[in-house]
């Protein structure tokens, strides 16, 4: 057991690091570009040199690299201050890409995948609906056949990047008379199509990372279908498995180190709070969880390193991480006492930003990508193999399933 | 044995609830949260007319001389409505401080105006992040003029009279002072916070005229007394918010369907809401104890205050965060009302000392209560 | 709001106290009696003077007292060191009595209730079965008609006091071909009947408070049926509602005071543990729960005082109390460090008995009378009026319900 | 990156598991728990023959010189089986202490016997309820004779060699001593405990012959080092118990039906078991870290030990108590096996310092690790 690279890994790491250091864009190269453009410039540069989406086949813009090499490249890139395109591209590259890889025909793969890798085209994902939520397959946006096209009406929600995306992957209900999972079909759509309207959703943190997307008689050619009609749920599982692998534990800026630093700065009964044993006990318990997540990730990496794929046990990262971070942020605000109420990004980061921003942002993380409750279900059912809840909607035509409406 | 509010008191609560149901719907909270008002002035006038600001002020000072039971019930309803008002800072803090230790002249000057809601008060002690400590107070007084900076004062940009903790005139520890903000020697700056439906301000005093409030050198003790009393009332306001959060979560869990049945039929949700109910019920019972101790000035007050305060802080945090969770994605949107209670739960939880600080006080108080 | 008696309550309290003080048995009276006999002596004395089961009608051995008077009498009795018959009689008086009161004919009420009140006859309750547990109505012990009798075969479990009881109340399956709740019938049985075999169950704490009771061709006359054939579930609800009212929160000897006393006795970092803020924080949180339960009980008493009956919200007492007590006992053992492992009733109570005994006993309290999970269900369904889980066995003949066997 | 046991190590684990599945079924635990044996002597002989007691002892002292990875995996399996053996006290404590600070002569005298399992050792430091403190140790030494009373010593009535913390010969703080129990000057009394499947004894020393173990005056530091190292191994043993508890609960939840379906299909049970899985998984990952730090003698050892220890203590407590809860009434009976793990979880949780004490140590260690 060690934390060291194997010989092959070390060689790859050196190669990656060398390339990254030599090619990390200079301020000259980036002059005049905004954040988005900087990210895309860097992505293009990586793609041109074969360092984009390196797990993908070379023929589709990748490098035929292993999962472990992908992780090593990410680690090395994270050590440098490179422009960040991840936030714009992770859905396309992390979810749409693998889905196209599995389900698209060769022509479409050649048409779309290299552009996904290079950032030339941006993709978004349109699965969730207002009536869906945790019950993802309960979606209602319908597609009705019309010649060689489908006509789409309905509403999607929680679509990040809808406004700057070129393409979207989506699941639609093509048959409400059969059981919930059976009546779905999977498509991709040009996000500039007539009839698509995008409205940002403001979150309680004040930012708008997601959108509502309304479809009014939007026309999608049948050639943009992935999988058979009625096979949409199966196709979407490909997407979702990759979503889960992407979300991960999410390192938070509110963590043991930042909370300990705060506890060194404020006092309790006139002494540094870090000397107060109630503070120490809480910090220690959180450290144990944080370390547990970190070393669980190391174990997953070791499995990757051997060629195994990470399993559903990765659900614990988000579950434990989000609820812990919420409690830590709340506790940090308590340590700040009355002034903890202040949230001002122009002021002292430790007093008026970090913990408040996290306090307001974290409820979203406990929900996005599967609520705490869904994560616990996944662990219970897929890891521990416990039986599912009785399904009230089993075998029932979708249109007959009770909705409370 | 009658550990319950009497009928007149329950009538006060029912009227308060009815009034706020009509006049302080969440649209009012949203208006203040999103807008440029420091507080809901129209609502403030109405509740002042109803006498809420005068509740425990004796009749000789223009109040209506009701007990703390009535005030506790009003606090609960304001909490339930998440009212965007400087009620807590003016009534639980400033009014209480003047009532407790003000001179006859000070009472005659300020209480009638506070009772009528014409004047809004607050109490300022914090000077920076973390706990306040008597030896660290940098607010000083010389020649009847007070100088210093107070941070994150609740209702700080609304109040026109402020109880200010400063160093004693005679190097005798700390003292409490009364300062009117009408002077240009007092500068207030509203700050950005996690709960914009309440006003918080930094306040700078530069040789502002001040009067001693209570005895010189007694500032810290006065502060602790006021905080003990206010903690009970905050606990009631927090309880109201926790109850609203549970009610919202319950209603949504009945309306929202997943997998062909209301989400309220899943044990994950049922047990979450049961836990909210448990926490709220215990918090309510402890708040009763607090109200009893406050209204009878019992020697158990410090213990009862800590108990009520901790119970309500825990209950409100849990209920407000799990209310969002029960709502799922929609609960995290700006458009939904869950956010008001989540913000408010934290703002109130640190208003008169964090849960952590009250845990320490509780153990101290348990020694005294046992003695 | 006050903690004082009303005028009427105060008068009753004075009357009760006077009687109790004057009649509390002297050591002379009790000489030569064992614990059981002492309890029964005292119960008889109370009954003779009209102070037994005081809520019951006078004609059945009671006093026609109110619920509040019952509580006051209990409070006053608890202040004195009287012999304790409660542990032997509470099931008969708390559950069998109210059930007979509601469902028995007048002749049986006259025959049984005064003897229940005076302690002349002891009753036990036989509901639970090995296959039942939380799903109480899934019981299988069957009664088959035979002339004017029923022949009973099967096994009951968790019967306390079975070996010293004269009578037992029990629910039996008289028809397995109808739905679970429909095929039950309620009886009482002479515990000395031929074919009843009683085996004590040893618990993990080492004591045996409960029994298994085996029925082999036990004959019960149809005249000992309460309610109609098939109405057993409805009758048993009378019993169960009274069980819930009886169990209450259970004051534990492991509480704030005892844990604080321990924290004053042992040290942390050389200072009394009570000065350690981590200990203080935990103690404070437990105090808040303990006080919350205490004052919730006071509120229930106030409701009683006005003639209202306590509702299902009383389920919180056991739920909160048991899990809190478990954590407190575990923490106390931690404070004792290595010596905390010792459990010896001959040694220092605070070091080697109280916390260890509770640690070993408390898992039972989290289960008996409804598990934590059932209590949470009760709160959710009966207080918050949330819907039941989907019922797999609904409308199914009992014999068709899956059992895993 | 290879944060995983290698194949040889996994083979050790598989063999240990297979052996214990056959030779240490819960009937063996029950036999010791209910009977008069101090430990399962037959099993002890077998595991000694398998070399488990010799795992990390170098070959020159009669051991087999494997790494702490192998010992950790054996510890996990012993924990999983709830083995009624003085393995922890003899191997993690006594053997480790002698290995760490024993003189060459001491090593040559004791390690071969400990390796062969002929001699069983332990470590005695506690003298009464609560924490041990160096200044409170009342065990004294004069003229090579040790006197004092140690309480609740694990394996105390089985061990024939004991590492004893006493006052220094020269008034120089505390020292560690080695005492053989063969003398009649050592009296052991098995005490009654919450886990009778392990032996605990009070031990009185009256002028018992002793040897210094390690440097004079270094007793407290030696104790802390030994506890840090042992904590990692205890964490593995605790983890094994937590895993057994989860496995039992899972199996029962699949077999037991209520309301026409397996109780494992109810979210209340599913989420309880998911929580066990989460705690166990995090504890396992932290135990890996501990094993790595132990085997490499990394400077992070104190931090890694505290992390592993706390994680496993929490996981085992939760899993063992909720395993009973999942079993319902039957789980609370003497007849069922749930009790073994509930008892053991607490016994191990206080064996080398409570969770609370390790939390304090963790924060200290985090300063050092960061430095």
Automatic annotation (TrEMBL), chains A, C:
Q: Which domain of life is it from?
A: Bacteria
Q: Which SUPFAM superfamilies match?
A: Acyl-CoA dehydrogenase C-terminal domain-like, Acyl-CoA dehydrogenase NM domain-like
What cofactor is this protein dependent on? FAD
| GO cellular component terms given for this protein | plasma membrane
Q: Which Gene3D superfamilies match?
A: Acyl-CoA dehydrogenase/oxidase, N-terminal domain, Butyryl-CoA Dehydrogenase, subunit A, domain 2, Butyryl-CoA Dehydrogenase, subunit A, domain 3
Spell out the molecular function terms from Gene Ontology: flavin adenine dinucleotide binding; oxidoreductase activity, acting on the CH-CH group of donors
Domain Acyl-CoA dehydrogenase/oxidase N-terminal per the UniProt entry, residue ranges:
6-119
Pfam families reported in the protein's UniProt record: Acyl-CoA_dh_1, Acyl-CoA_dh_M, Acyl-CoA_dh_N
Q: Which InterPro entries match?
A: Acyl-CoA_Oxase/DH_mid-dom, Acyl-CoA_Oxase/DH_mid-dom_sf, AcylCo_DH-like_C, AcylCo_DH/oxidase_C, AcylCoA_DH/ox_N, AcylCoA_DH/ox_N_sf, AcylCoA_DH/oxidase_NM_dom_sf, Mycobact_Acyl-CoA_DH
Q: Which UniProt keywords apply?
A: FAD, Flavoprotein, Oxidoreductase
- Show where the Acyl-CoA oxidase/dehydrogenase middle domain sits: 124-218
Q: Where is the Acyl-CoA dehydrogenase/oxidase C-terminal domain?
A: 230-384
Q: Which family does it belong to?
A: Belongs to the acyl-CoA dehydrogenase family.
Q: Which PANTHER family match?
A: ACYL-COA DEHYDROGENASE (PTHR43292), ACYL-COA DEHYDROGENASE FADE34 (PTHR43292:SF4)
Q: What is this protein called?
A: Acyl-CoA dehydrogenase
TrEMBL record, chains B, D:
Kindly name one Pfam family recorded for this protein: Acyl-CoA_dh_1
InterPro entries assigned to the protein according to its UniProt record, in alphabetical order: AcylCo_DH-like_C, AcylCo_DH/oxidase_C, AcylCoA_DH/ox_N, AcylCoA_DH/ox_N_sf, AcylCoA_DH/oxidase_NM_dom_sf
Q: Which residues form the Acyl-CoA dehydrogenase/oxidase C-terminal domain?
A: 217-355
Note the superkingdom of the native organism: Bacteria
Keyword Oxidoreductase applies: yes
Does this entry carry the keyword Signal? no
Keywords assigned: FAD, Flavoprotein, Oxidoreductase
Give cofactor(s), names only: FAD
What are the residue boundaries of the Acyl-CoA dehydrogenase/oxidase N-terminal domain, all occurrences included?
Answer: 6-118
Transmembrane parts of this sequence? none
Q: Name one GO molecular function term.
A: acyl-CoA dehydrogenase activity
Family, similarity comment: Belongs to the acyl-CoA dehydrogenase family.
Query: Could you tell me what this protein is called?
Result: Acyl-CoA dehydrogenase
Q: What is the lineage of its organism?
A: Bacteria, Pseudomonadati, Pseudomonadota, Gammaproteobacteria, Cellvibrionales
